[in-house]
Amino acid sequence: MPMTIYFHNEAPMTYRLRNIRKVRKWLLDLARKEGFDISNLNYVFCTDNYLHQINVDYLQHDTLTDIITFDQSEEENTIEGDIFISIERVKENAKLESVSMRKELLRVLVHGLLHLIGYDDKSASLKKKMREKEDYYLNRLQF
User: Fold this and answer.
1) What is the torsional sign of CA 30, 136, 129, 65?
2) What mean pLDDT do residues 97-111 have?
3) Looking at residue 2, what is its pLDDT?
4) How far apart are alpha carbons 93 and 106 in whole angstroms?
5) Domains of the chain by residue range
6) What 8-state DSSP symbol labels residue 140?
7) Residue 127, Cβ neighbours under 10 Å: how many?
8) Does pLDDT of 7 surpass 80?
9) Are the C-beta atoms of residues 67 and 84 closer than 8 Å to each other?
């Protein structure tokens, strides 16, 4: 099965992810370690306004967010999906967390993939588990 991870921009966003090949391999390895294959995964970098509209239209949430994940998977242990990320929110959250924008973006990339794998963050204990997984995989990325 061909495994593909794509990175797109939704105009007017023009974010360029550095080290795409390494990031792609890291995400593929993460999925394999969790027992999944990635068939087709699209990361879409966008603005706050664009992601807010998706949040309102599809989830009926009138709030800003940094990420929305749509699972399109039809086969067990195979990932297909679309992950929308507000680069503006990621930059703001990086400032609030006192981390680099790049590190925050990598965390969000992992966060979306973990959602597609089946992790949830709807309670304090689930959020803690999700954060532990994010940290685990972030600590294994070498540039």
Assistant:
1) negative
2) 97
3) 60
4) 12
5) 4-138
6) T
7) 13
8) yes
9) yes
Record the tokens describing residue 59, joined without a space: 């989830």
Take residue 105 and report the two structure tokens written for it: 């973006």
pLDDT category, 92, cuts 50, 70, 90?
A: very high
Cα gap 143→126, rounded to integer Å = 29
Edge-to-edge, what's the strand order for the sheet holding 4-9?
4-9, 37-46, 78-86, 67-71
Please tell me whether the peptide bond between 12 and the residue prior to it is cis, using omega within 30 degrees of 0: yes
**Has this prediction a pTM greater than 0.90?**
yes
pLDDT, averaged across the chain: 95
Is residue 73 within 8 Å of residue 31, measured between CB atoms?
A: no
Long-range pairs of 50-58 with CB within 8 A, sequence gap ≥ 24: 50/10, 50/13, 50/84, 50/86, 51/84, 51/85, 51/86, 51/89, 54/84
Query: Check: CATH 3.40.390.30 for 4-138?
Result: yes
